[in-house]
Amino acid sequence: APIMILNGPNLNLLGRRQPEIYGTDTLADIEALCERTARTHGATCDARQSNHEGRLIDWIHEARESHAGIVINPAAYSHTSVALLDALNVCDGMPVIEVHISNIHQREEFRHHSYVSHRADGVIAGCGVQGYAFAVERVVALVKAAGE
Ligand code: DQA
Questions:
Q1: Looking at ligand 1, which atom is closest to the CA of residue 8?
Q2: Mapping DSSP to helix (H, G, I), strand (E, B) and coil, where does residue 5 land?
């Protein structure tokens, strides 16, 4: 089963959006990095992005049925969405890794808390887009460990 890569609001603008914070790589670059990383480990990815909270929730429900794990950058919804947390909490036993390109703990106070972190098996922040590669590798490792 593929690993679902979910990116939240405004991440479709990566590359042009505050490059001093988020760098110059685009969302397409990130999705290609995830696919390359997964393939190295014999896995595949299913990458999606939405600016809509409800659509992200529908995709989490889908992942629950048909995916090996979830890598999610909930973007601003990290800091606001109990609904995203609740959706992830229904994904019992499925690896969930949360990614933030920037180091949210170094930024404004309102970015320091993430609802999604209450469920995430791991959180990667401040590693730039490389964090997505780490997250994919971690999902692969957790899936492998669960099968042993
Ligand atoms: C982000 C950090 C969030 O605070 C912000 O709202 C984003 C991106 C990151 O990847 O660093 O949109 O999740």
A1: 12
A2: strand
Helices (H), the chain: 19-22, 27-40, 53-66, 82-89, 130-147
For residue 132, the enclosing domain spans 3-147
Ligand 1 center–CA 93 separation, angstroms = 26
For residue 17, what pLDDT is reported?
A: 87
Number of compact structural domains in the chain: 1
CB within 8 Å of 140: residues ≥ 6 apart: 3, 38, 41, 43
Catalytic residues: 22, 100
Here the CATH number for the domain that contains residue 115 is 3.40.50.9100
Atom of ligand 1 nearest to the CA of 76: 6
What percent of the chain is helix, strand and coil (3-state, nearest 5)?
50, 15, 35
ipTM, 2 decimals? 0.99
- Which residue has a Cα nearest atom 1 of ligand 1? 75
pTM as predicted: 0.97
- Bridge partners of residue 123, in order along the sequence: 98
